[in-house]
Amino acid sequence: MTSRKDDSNQDSEDAASLTDAKRISTLQEEKRRILVNIPLPHTELDQHGEPKKSYVTNKIRTSKYTLLTFIPKNLFEQFRKVANMYFLFLVVLQAFPLIGGDVSLFVGASPLLTIIAITAFKDAFEDWKRHTQDRSLNKSKTVILANWKNVNVPGGETHNKPLERMWSSVSSYLGSNNNKTTDNITSDSSFDSLVSQQVLQPKVGTAQWAESRWQDVRVGDIIQLKNNDQVPADIIILSTSEPDGLCYVETKELDGETNLKIRHCIPSTGSIITESDCERFTFYVQSEPPHPNLYSYTGVMHLFGKDINAGDQQADETTEGDRKIEPVSINNVLLRGCVVRNTEWVIGLVMFTGADTKIMLNAGDTPSKRSRIEIETNFHVTMNFIILFLLCFGSAIAGAIFYIQPDSSADVFEYSGNDAGGAFENGFLVFWTSLILFQNIVPISLYITIEMVKTVQAYFIYSDIDIYYPKLDYPCTPKTWNISDDLGQIEYIFSDKTGTLTQNVMEFKKCTINGVSYGLGETDAVRGAKLAESSSAAVEEDEIDLVAEKELMLQEMSKIFENKYISPNVTFIDSKLFQDLRAEGVQAKAIQDFFSALALCHTVLVEHPDESNPSRIDYKAQSPDEAALVGCARDMGFVFLERFQDTLTIELFGERRQFTLLNVLEFNSTRKRMSVIIRHPDGGIVLLCKGADSVIYERLENGKQAELRENTLRDLGVFANEGLRTLCIAYRTIPDDEYEVWAQKYAEAASSITDREEKIEQACEMIEQSLILLGGTAIEDRLQEGVPECIKTLSTAGIKIWVLTGDKIETAINIGFACNLLQKDMTLIVVTASDKQDTARQLNEALDKFFGPDAKPSDQDSKHALVIDGETLKYALDQSLKSLLLDLGKRCNSVVCCRVSPLQKAQVVALVKEGLNAMTLSIGDGANDVSMIQEANVGVGIVGEEGRQASMAADYAFAQFRFLDKLLLVHGRWSYFRIAEMISCFFYKNIVWTIAMFWYQVWAGFTAQYLYDYTYILLYNLVFTAFPVMFLGAFDQDVNVKTSLKYPQLYKRGIFQQDFTKSKFWLYVLDAVYQSAICFFIPWGLLLNGSSHANGLQNNGLSDLGTMVAGSVVATTNFYVGLNIMNWSWITFVVIGFSIMSFYVWVEFYSLWYIGFFRMDLILYTEIEFWLAVVLSVILSILPRYSVKYIHKTYWPSDTDIIREKLHHDIGRRA
Description:
Keywords: ATP-binding, Magnesium, Membrane, Metal-binding, Nucleotide-binding, Translocase, Transmembrane, Transmembrane helix, Transport. Residues 208-258 form the P-type ATPase A domain. The chain crosses the membrane at residues 82-99, 105-125, 379-404, 429-450, 983-1002, 1014-1035, 1065-1085, 1105-1123, 1130-1156, 1162-1183. It is found in: Endomembrane system; Membrane. Residues 1-23 are annotated as: Disordered. The chain is globular, with a radius of gyration of 38 Å. 47% of the residues lie in helices and 16% in strands. By secondary structure, the protein is α+β, with helices and mostly antiparallel strands. It contains 45 helices and 34 strands. The model is unreliable at 1-29, 159-185, 313-317 and 534-541 (pLDDT under 50). Helix 4 crosses helix 7 and helix 5 (82-94) crosses helix 7 (105-138). The strands form 6 sheets. The chain has a 9-stranded mixed sheet with strand order 15-34-33-32-16-28-31-30-29, with helices on both faces. Strands 18-17-27-26-25-24-23-22-21 form a 9-stranded antiparallel sheet, with helices on both faces. The protein has a 6-stranded antiparallel sheet with strand order 3-2-4-14-5-12.
């Protein structure tokens, strides 16, 4: 069984293996023992008679803050940012009158307080939502056994008293529940000897089921779950409503998988039904400590007394008199977050609560990611700090020089003496005062503005109807909001194949039985291979009429039997199969054995979706492969009907037959096979096995079926070349005595608490030998809709795509042609080596042949694609060969890595990301893709039909691969150039504002005198210039959606990082310095001599000059930002107009009530000099920038400029 689910679990198993190994090695020290109706030994009780060992409560808290910790913790996190610490330092400096002047401390701190308050409000709102979710979950209702002594916790009477609940909450908050004392714990041998003497005498008949809250559930409680109930803690299943002790569970909230899974109760406790049954059973569970591996659990249940055989239905436990040992595995456990389905009730014992449950242990955050622009912005900030230092240092030196000048104005205006004792002291004070004066050159509001803009961009992505998938009701969901601009710079995409490029909806297409191949029709891979051929004959459509062939097959089937269970969508078509069946020869017997094995060797669940039509059967399996195999057997007349306890019922050609299921040897990614052992209704024990061809062939009986093996392997090779997923089917007959011996060893292995998995594997190896080959299956996983077109578009955009798959080379190549990853004009470079030296040789030969100095011109000029298998990749990723692989890979347009493991996927991504310093994106759908998703700069998870493991760990999640083109070429490209231009404009406007104050210092004697009123400084970034740059960052467009997708080459600007460069930063700095000079000296020149009004007021004061300069700067910077906006609409006019007018409205309002500005409006607004200064400043400041843009777009236009011009002319012609 090639379980997609189990394949995807491999990375989780790999990730947890080291941790689990360490835990098992210390199991005796950390093991958990939970007792039921057995008193604790005195050595495990404290002086008050309560258990020494305590466990965490079931109350969870995913929030970061509480009412008491919010302010200190949030402030600590905010002031971890260097920028915030810098501005806090400036606020402290302003508290000193010598440096801060007459500016009040509150006014000086208001910008920082505003930013801190906005961020704190956002954090509080997000955390309030977490608190609400936690509170709702903690107060969810469940049913526990009350009026019963739970000896494992203090105050074990489960009455749910209010005082107990209050103490539980207080102790949880204080952290006392995290105390896990392990000293003086009774050893196993001495404990078992005490059990028979100290069996608790329960108050039989007093226990009853009672409703309780999740947060009150404790370790050792017995709980009852009903159908559709969510599991509140990790519990061991004691019994279920099903006669065979089965329980069906949905684990979607845990691992994202939507398929139902089967869990089993402990056989010896299967008879527990009522409250009195819970009081009567006496046992304890010896458990491993909590760990995060979702797919592993090891424990042992020790039962005592006469009731231990009451629910016994299996023989895989150890019995010693009135004592029995039962193994407990993950198949006997329900994990918190799962949902009980199709089961009336379940009774379970709580093993792990709260933070110890597996879902909480796996709730860690994905790796923190920062966008490239965010990282590169640090350079701009650093340069601004350097500019700030130079301004302050220069002012300090100049201030010291002015201080020692004789006959200066200071002799008159500073008659009482200077605060400084000398030139050095004066320069020292000027430095720190200038630091406050020029502080706005480092924009305090930049980071909060970026965060707000990226929130808007994330909302646009989420709201895009074009990347919404109605079938799953799932939009594109951004989970990491701060890397949207990285979507516009992706150079390499690393993609899984199954479930990512393909649908992960399997269709049984072909098979080989007894050396005879069956199945008609072409696959996507075959059609892709035809596209790769140059001859016209090769691209002809499949000449077989599948509709007519299907009708013929149904007619042949009806001659043998009537199949009322056949699906209307039959995927396997070949009338020859039923012709051979009617012949009643050796081949007919082989066909019956083959499809009977498919109908019996599985773990699927039967569903009847239409109650009015009992003949309609659907199969729910843990992998789509398995459902396809059983579904095909049904369509061919070998119908699996039901599983009841240990009985499998199938219908063969209309005749019902029942088989006894003895054992299921489950699939995992290490075994690569699964087996069932059944007892035939005619007698005899048979093992049925299915798995990968390499695994099955190793276990075939030696010296037999030589010709069949060769023919089957040949057919499987043909199937693989057609892009099909293949499996081998085999069986063996087991003598009863051999089975009995093996069953005992298997039971012992299953009962082991240490190294259980290894011992079970060894037992399986003993029985899965000397197999008889039946044949092989071939399943197609069809391409998703739009994949070829999407890959072609992305390739045209300059993005290189690497596919990392577990398929064979032949299958991967054909799929590559089918999805446009490989093209017929590409030269394929196939590297397959057996050792490190061979790998190095082949890599060097490929580089020399196709890219070396002696390479043929035709080879150098053509496109190349690299195909490498997992074994070779293992050697190529060695430290000594990494550079060769990277050098070859970067020269190829496409790369296909076959037979790769989850770890290798992450290593390949890291190789390119770190080796080439390139922006990478990984996309996948399964747990085996999580490592590469988290390794890449941007991780995208496909929300598949089967599971959502990858989407839960990804930065972005959507349902179809084809949505990737719009996410990158539209949203990503827009986000990149918007953020790049917004940050550049942000630094520009602050430099203009600050340097204008520096020019004034020449006439102020470098005394760090404020040019502007302080309210202007406060409102400049908050109101006067805030909205145009935010509008640019959130809404600007160079071209529309349709044009972005029509001309994907526009994306290359992001790959080459042409919109956010160091040279662009310095050009904006130079422009800002020039404009600051214009905005200062024009008002200064016009007001040099001043003028008088009839009312006696004059306009030659500092407030007048500062207002004129500030008004000029505000108008200039807003128009400048508008000049850089590409998409002008009425909203653009409103935003820029509002921003400019806000300054003049503020001056009008401010002059009405502030005495220092009394009637400033009457002085300035009625003067022609004021308005002339503003107009001249704007024109002379913008004119050079406008001229450069005009010349550049006219004579050296970019691709974007050409496309925009073309669109403009097209619109003009249509008009």
